[in-house]
Records
---
Amino acid sequence: NAGVTQTPKFRILKIGQSMTLQCTQDMNHNYMYWYRQDPGMGLKLIYYSVGAGITDKGEVPNGYNVSRSTTEDFPLRLELAAPSQTSVYFCASMAGYNEQFFGPGTRLTVL
Amino acid sequence: AQSVSQHNHHVILSEAASLELGCNYSYGGTVNLFWYVQYPGQHLQLLLKYFSGDPLVKGIKGFEAEFIKSKFSFNLRKPSVQWSDTAEYFCAVCPGNTGGFKTIFGAGTRLFVKA
């Protein structure tokens, strides 16, 4: 099992550009999550999904969008990137009422 | 609102010193409790978890944590730290009233172990 994979590992965007962060899991988990991690701030939940076709907002959804067309994939879309979106983004999945499995992260810089 | 508080943001210890990291949460119902570790440049990994039963749980690499329900606490301990324990540690709570799928993370504690 590869677990949770994320691409790209690093990205630099200019203000106003858009991009999609990819996340795939091969554990057949229903629950998937996107977090951002800023220094000293812990993890903030951006969006989550409880199954294919079902998504919902977390604490900090503004400026982001998600979709969940399959169990495996949960891409995060950034529209009109802003410097405030400079962060490390982690995708995670969970079987249900249990531990979360995290991907390796994407380090995004918006200049 | 439900929250998780980690008492120390930064901890510096010498090798062989004992470690205790505090964690308190604000939720009165059923919870699952976790400690995750993030080594420099890596993603979060599970250190240990508590669901039910013996409130003293043992995890990987000699870590343990004690659930004290009356204090809403889940403190992490290790009798003797090593340089390789340098990492950031996150306490996390999965409250029962979220359907079991939302986890709330603390802000993290950065541990630096001096060789």
Note: DSSP finds no helices and twelve strands in chain B.
---
Amino acid sequence: EAGVTQSPTHLIKTRGQQATLRCSPISGHTSVYWYQQALGLGLQFLLWYDEGEERNRGNFPPRFSGRQFPNYSSELNVNALELEDSALYLCASSFYRGRQPQHFGDGTRLSIL
Amino acid sequence: GESVGLHLPTLSVQEGDNSIINCAYSNSASDYFIWYKQESGKGPQFIIDIRSNMDKRQGQRVTVLLNKTVKHLSLQIAATQPGDSAVYFCAEMGPKETSGSRLTFGEGTQLTVNP
């Protein structure tokens, strides 16, 4: 069974540009989560999508947004990129029933020049 | 707010020894906990989970202990192997009403296994 897949693996942008990151969940999982792992800051929750709707949002500015498609895949969009957005962006998926483990992909490394 | 912290940032053990990684959490209403292992260049890998109605759960070579009285979580790895070298994170899930399914992660402990 394929795990969570993310693309691209690496992304290099300049300040002010926009970035789009993609995630395909494990087959059968309906929930997709996005986390940011910045150097020295650990993993921080960004967004949670389930059945196409945003269910919860972390403490990030509105320029971080996303969506979930009918096939449960997801996109994370970051507008007006800032240097501090440089980080590893991790996507996870789970079943949305009760307390379920979240399984992670290997992330997209976003570098802002 | 919610926070999860690890007592030790680094842990070095000899191959074959048992390892214990500790975690303190602050939200007494958290009802679900997960341990993850993250190797360099990879995403966190699920190890084991435990619900708040349990005190102990065992997996293959791993045991998680939950002490709700002092809000403490630990991961025990038996017969530690070089392949266990990684950063280990604990994560908590708060009540559905306020946190939904978001995970709050601890800072991570770097486990190094010496041959």
Note: The domain at 5-106 of chain A is CATH 2.60.40.10 (Immunoglobulin-like).
---
Amino acid sequence: AQKVTQAQTEISVVEKEDVTLDCVYETRDTTYYLFWYKQPPSGELVFLIRRNSFDEQNEISGRYSWNFQKSTSSFNFTITASQVVDSAVYFCALSEAQFYFGTGTSLTVIP
Amino acid sequence: DTAVSQTPKYLVTQMGNDKSIKCEQNLGHDTMYWYKQDSKKFLKIMFSYNNKELIINETVPNRFSPKSPDKAHLNLHINSLELGDSAVYFCASSPRAVVSYNEQFFGPGTRLTVL
């Protein structure tokens, strides 16, 4: 069974639109950590954010925001006023006994 | 002053050959990893090393063998390469053991193509 599900395989938006990338995870642990990584076309993996399971406060960083809801086991990522440079594959990941990556969501921002 | 570096960036080779990919981190981290990313972008962990001990081996074929000469290096050796080994291989490191809140820092990846 997939520990981290990113149901959206590909998303296209027009520049300046807001977009939300969904992430649903599965764990029986009470202590765990959630992450988002960005993989731009150049191929490197860039760390974006980490959340621990005890901190459900939403976080905002510039145009990026994250909504962590334990009740629905979700850790969604919203980009506000998207830009072409946001085009990338975004991975959600869960860390418990080991690191599990989701299958990624490919975001294309059209100018 | 690259944090996690891998060589080579591209590797093209014939089926049946043996090849190695090198990884070095200068972050002073305790744990290093190897991941395989297939053509569908799926990332799967292959190995991790913590203070020279293998702590994860995710049913990877024994043609793949990690070798860690010291804490800063984790090389990946692949014997008898097969077509299905074609993928991008990422090295990563983190400050402490796998059961950790620490994010992983990734290298730039090595694109392996087996002909």
Note: The interface with chain A takes residues 33, 40-45, 48, 56, 88, 90, 92, 98-101, 103-106, 108-109, 111 of chain B (CB under 8 Å).
---
Amino acid sequence: DAGITQSPRHKVTETGTPVTLRCHQTENHRYMYWYRQDPGHGLRLIHYSYGVKDTDKGEVSDGYSVSRSKTEDFLLTLESATSSQTSVYFCAISESPSSVYGYTFGSGTRLTVV
Amino acid sequence: SQQGEEDPQALSIQEGENATMNCSYKTSINNLQWYRQNSGRGLVHLILIRSNEREKHSGRLRVTLDTSKKSSSLLITASRAADTASYFCATASAAGNKLTFGGGTRVLVKP
């Protein structure tokens, strides 16, 4: 999607290994979000950022950490991957939480933990 | 737990018919948004309605909001096969700094 890219697009990893997903934006938006999408659960917020080095937890933050050292990059780390973290992960950006344009989502990262 | 719950979970209609889906939520909101997701893709923002608004239109989309009932509806008129997708409502809290999504409605438009 224009202005936001996620990497990698697909990843298979082993249980217990650390994994880092990257979200990169070129829109200079202040707000960035990480969601996971699972069947039957819709999208659930993991962590979000409201500025460089400013982050907060979402509803499913256990087992995840984030970092934002630059406006354009928001990293999601699974500290020790578990099978329950197999999911599709979406990054989103917005210029303000109430922007009429809503959030812009990346194309997602499909993560499989074996 | 999900703030927004869509109804129905799935909907199958013929091309040219209207599609209506509903969203209910639990707590006070700043705004409510609707998104579309095509299979295997990211979500695309469709429309935002603020808590002090009752109805908005965008092309073939009509959204209503009833804050007294904590519910919203999305109407797609004259549906097309390309409207086949999942549709999600999302609510922004009073602080407005994050969105909470519902489980979505899967819409199939048959040619």
Note: The CA atoms of residues 18 and 93 of chain A lie 24 Å apart.
